[in-house]
Every structure is written in C-alpha cells, then in structure tokens.
Automatic annotation (TrEMBL):
GO biological process, one term: protein homooligomerization
Species assigned in the record: Buceros rhinoceros silvestris
Coiled-coil positions: none
One Pfam family, short name: BTB_2
Ranges for domain BTB: 3-100
Top-level taxon in the UniProt lineage: Eukaryota
The protein's name: BTB/POZ domain-containing protein KCTD14
Classification lineage: Eukaryota, Metazoa, Chordata, Craniata, Vertebrata
Length: 223
C-alpha cells in the first residue's frame, strides 16, 4: 500500500497517498516527492507547499479520478502550470475559458504593436494626473489600418492637446474591431485593480475629422 502523506498547502490541510502525488512522474509535484522529499515541514510534521491551498483540492481531485475542474478554471490553470501536470494543462487549455483567452484574445493582442507597453503607459499617465483628484483621464487613439494611422496622425497635429499624453494603439491585421480592442484595454486595466470606463472623445466643432473615429477618453476613478 502507498504511504499516506499529510500536506499543508498555503494553510489548507490535505491527506492523500504518495502514489497519488506521483501519478504523473514528469511533473514538478511528483519530483517534490521522488527520493528524499524536497519540502520543508510545518510544526505538525506535514509537508509544506507555499501555494494557494484553495485550488489544490482541484489538483488532487484530478490526480485521484481524472476529473477536470469546472470551477475556478483560470486559477486552477495557474496551479497546474506550477505543478507542471501536463495532461491537466492540456485539458484545461481545451476548456472554453482558457481556449478563448489563449487562442482567441491573446493571439489577437499579440498582433497589436506594443499592446502591453501601452497599457502600462496609460496607467503611468493616469497616476501622474491623480494628485488631489478623484478622477484622471487618458486620451487613447485607436487605429485599425495603416490608412487610419496616417489620418490619426494628421488629426493629432490639429488637436489642441499634449501629443505625448495620447496613447496610440494599432494598426493590426486581425478580425476584431476597434470596439473589441477597447473592451480588451478596459479588461486588462481592470485586471490590475483599477476602476476604469471609456467613451468617445469629442473635440471642438469644425474639426475636420470625426474625432470619435479615433479618439477615446479612458476615465480612471480613484475614490
């Protein structure tokens, strides 16, 4: 019979067998218990793993019964990557939540030049303007084609604003629209803990381009 193992995973206690933990020999989890265990123990002698204990139950359930979790998919996926349980990783990546994120959204954003850097730039600008304010705004220029990029630059030259404070996204070669990209920007900024909304940025009358075709105001609310 396989020895019984008691675990303390981030403060959550689990009891299982050594054979369960070593079910997938190439995984990092199996390596932790191969040969002399490579883990510290807590005051009660339980092996300690410094990871979120809440999601380890889903890892353990998969090892015991091959049951792929249907809850907390994103968080369980992170733990599966950490423990390097390749069959679980593959099955989670086939789930609609992970597939949509990795194959659809992430692949689209990879085609938007400097997307991640622009998200960070937006946040830096918003924080710089937040002093003694409840809200701060960032103007974003979104262009889907090279032609729109040229028109946007022409529009920027006509706008009465600090051009360095305008964050430009695009152009890109993929099916998603400008509204899809705007949703992605909001989603990724909110994922960093910020409260944010956006609306078309309307300029003065007589402006020779419809500014809402390119420019959007993202509003950060601080309190």
């Amino acid at each position: 019979l396989s020895p019984i193992v008691e675990l303390n995973v981030g403060g959550e206690m689990y009891t299982t067998t050594l054979s369960t933990l070593k079910k997938h020999p190439g995984s990092k989890l199996a390596e932790m218990f191969t040969g002399q265990p490579k883990l510290r123990t807590d005051s009660e002698g339980r092996f300690f793993i410094d990871r979120p204990g809440t999601y380890f139950k889903y890892i353990l359930e998969y090892l015991r019964s091959n049951q792929v979790p249907t809850q907390c998919i994103q968080d369980v996926y992170k733990e599966a990557l950490f423990y390097d349980i390749k069959p679980l990783i593959k099955q989670l990546e086939d789930s609609p939540q992970i597939f949509g994120e990795l194959v659809a959204r992430k692949q689209f954003l990879a085609r938007v030049p400097s997307y991640s850097e622009n998200i960070e730039l937006m946040i830096r600008i918003a924080r710089a303007e937040a002093v003694a304010s409840r809200r701060s705004s960032v103007i974003v220029c979104v262009v889907r084609t090279e032609e729109d990029a040229a028109r946007c630059q022409d529009a920027l030259n006509s706008l009465d604003m600090d051009k360095k404070s305008v964050v430009k996204f695009g152009p890109w070669k993929a099916a998603p629209s400008i509204s899809d990209l705007l949703d992605c920007i909001q989603m990724d900024v909110e994922a960093k803990g910020y409260q944010i909304s956006f609306q078309p940025h309307v300029t003065e009358k007589g402006f020779r381009f419809k500014s809402q075709d390119f420019f959007y105001k993202f509003l950060f609310t601080w309190w």
